[in-house]
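#structure-requests
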Amino acid sequence: MFLAEANVLQLWNLETIGIHEPAEWKAVSLREAEAKQYFLHIVTWSQEGCYIVSLPWTEAGSDYITDNWEVAEKRLVSMTTKLIADGRYQ
């Protein structure tokens, strides 16, 4: 890094010159290892030769999947009201 291009505040920032905390690198490698373990846990190989991937909401133990009926109904009523107010409801 050239001194002419650098701001004084940038020179005090250790990351600018490539110095990082070891804990930061350790956290990244730990997250990568956890992601790999999770992937290996949810993906299996069937006898037919296909991959089987578990759905995330079945892992949590919840058997109920929301249908968002109330949200959709509110949006419909809101849009209908706006169209009637604009005179574009037919």
